[in-house]
Write a structure and sequence with these properties.
By secondary structure, the chain is an alpha+beta fold. 39% of the residues lie in helices and 23% in strands. The structure holds (3R)-3-hydroxy-3-methyl-5-(phosphonooxy)pentanoic acid.
Length: 333
Amino acid sequence: MSRTATALAHANIAFSKYWGKRPYPGNYPAVPSLSLTLDAMTTRTTVTFDGALAADRLTLGGTVEAGRPLERVTALLDRVRAASGLRARAAVTSQNDFPTASGLASSASGFAALALAAVHASGLDWSLEQVSDLARRSSASAGRSLYGGFVELPAGPAEPTDAPLFARTLVPAADLDWRLLVVSLGDTRKDVSSSDGMVRTAAESPYYPAWLEVGPRLHDEVRSALLARDFERFGAAAEKSALAMHASAFAAGVIYWQAPTLQVLGAVRELRGRGVAVFATMDAGPHVKVLVRPVDAGPAAAHLRALPGVGRVFEAKGAEGAQLIPPSVGAET
Ligand code: PMV
């Protein structure tokens, strides 16, 4: 007997960044974060628990994976097995419609889709909060991708805990049309994962304490500008959050930027100098994401596409949260 479910989840990009974990187990973020779930980047994952399997199996974009990626998937499945009483191993098949592990947030959509599919395939009747907490334990940004629109994930408590910590929508996608131009600077896999980058920053950067102080303040500014629908204040605070996060990482030798990253940042400033309201944000990879109002998206994209070193530029809007794809929901085959 096997039990199977398929889920879709979108990537999200943070405007106030999560960077750094609480110094106790459970993958609790050290700072709060706020993101937009994006329609343009999707992961589709099928989980099939099958009593005949001797071990969990992971196929990512048609390639069978072993090592760290499989271990991270098994860790999530083990939590689902412990909660559901199911003992069967699972076959996990996942497909992204964008490059994996290149700072385009594949772990967010990947673990969100995996968590939702695994919970339903196991027969657990969990709330979205419980699924978000499960995904957050594997990749904190994945806790946000369960939800649509502008989403907030609080920091973990200062004192050690194992309590649930989950994200929530602050502004639904349908309520506010702010866009992101995703400026892709090549399809190379990053050398330092976000998890390792954070650990190294915390251990080696003299500016990590400064980040822990300024990150939450910038988050409050991003959040209050969002609730006031103040695009320019939101964008300015978001750009500062990204720069402060990267500055703390740089000082530990964790450098995700490449030469074209700076070219794009320069072009964003130049556009701003000409009165176009555009703001940049960068994650654990070289790519730049540019926040823009719908009216400016076309001309700004054309400008950025013409820069040297720039690959694809695509426009993304707010999307709904993760969803199960019927009719495979919890089906027994
Ligand atoms: O959730 P992780 O481990 O993939 O880390 C995400 C870190 C950043 O993308 C750089 C920031 C964020 O808040 O998404």
